[in-house]
Amino acid sequence: MNFPSEIFRWRFLAAASVLLLAGCASGLQFRTQDSKGSAEPPPPTEMITEQLIAAEKEASAQQGEQDLSRLMVPNPAPYAIGRGDVLSIVVWDHPELAGGGMTAAAAAADANSTNSSAVATTAPPGFVVDHQGRIQFPFAGLLPVEGLTEEAARALLANKLARYIANPNITLRVQSYRSKRVYIDGEVKQPGLQAINDIPMTLVEALNRAGGLLPTADQSRIALERGEARYRINLRDLVQKNINPGNIMLAPGDVVRVHSRDESKVFVSGEVVTPKALTMHDGRLTLNEALGETGGVSPLSGDARQIYVVRKTPERTRVFQLDARLTGSIAMAESFELRPKDVVYVAASPLANWNRHLSLLFPGALTSAVGVTTRP
Prior knowledge:
- The chain is an alpha+beta fold.
- About 25% of the residues lie in helices and about 25% in strands.
- A hairpin with a 5-residue loop joins strand 14 (about 265-270) and strand 15 (about 275-280).
- Helix 1 (about 5-25) crosses helix 8 (about 350-360) and helix 1 (about 5-25) crosses helix 9.
- The longest helix has 22 residues, at about 5-25.
- The two termini are about 15 Å apart.
- Residues about 20-25 and about 100-125 have low confidence and may be disordered.
């Protein structure tokens, strides 16, 4: 065995390790390209400080600020009769005016019947509001009732019948609500259409009729579409601001979508104990919570000075860095709010990088060199 050659090899490895150690201490590096493939300067790294956290919270509040006053109706108006509704009308002491031959619907066929025979079902008698918002009643003729409340429609009919009946006593109510509906979709137990009736259709009422929210629902991301307008409703934020979500009134044709928590994830990678994707808690997850749920920075290979948060915005890519060795860093990590699709990356320590690179360049060389120095 040529012992001087082993010593020379060991010295070469030591010199190479110094160069590798210097090259591995630079932290997280970015290489970006534009649409043409040419290199762009890397995004600047922003240190996480109390001033930056305050600025981020203010910017987030301004960005999420949305005028929900149009949706708030503390005192909803009574139900207004609409086209397609079925009215039940009774004129007391005059059963001949009950309109026994006027039904809300005719026969319906059962297509799934084994003998293919039509099974007719007759709906309860009533007066259907036609496509022009009118009903036809004996002696009163065509009566426009669209947009009227039950009380107003009753008064109008009584005024018409007063010409033929002295002091008519009338009971008028909506028997079937079919003119106004909203659609509930997403993370609810029973998605689908919900008919608006005499009970005010608030957002809370609609969610309850749909069976309530599923455990996978994100209460911070409830979308309400009304025509061309789109509103994002954060139930958790409304409660914190002492705003009653029960005052959000839905209108006919509204579409409510409850998003899933799985759509708002944060990815934690690098030198942590358990790298994984984390689900946000109703739109909220701090940097400290993200590190805690992944076991924290690896004590063997992680560099607490180089904890990064990479955030892709429509304008640019932003990179935040936290030095966990500084005083108050834990408090800052708890106050730093993450956003959906953020990537938390913990860089490796210089020693860990040196060991890995050396093992890739010279497999087994480090063990051999150590064995030479310890050999008698």
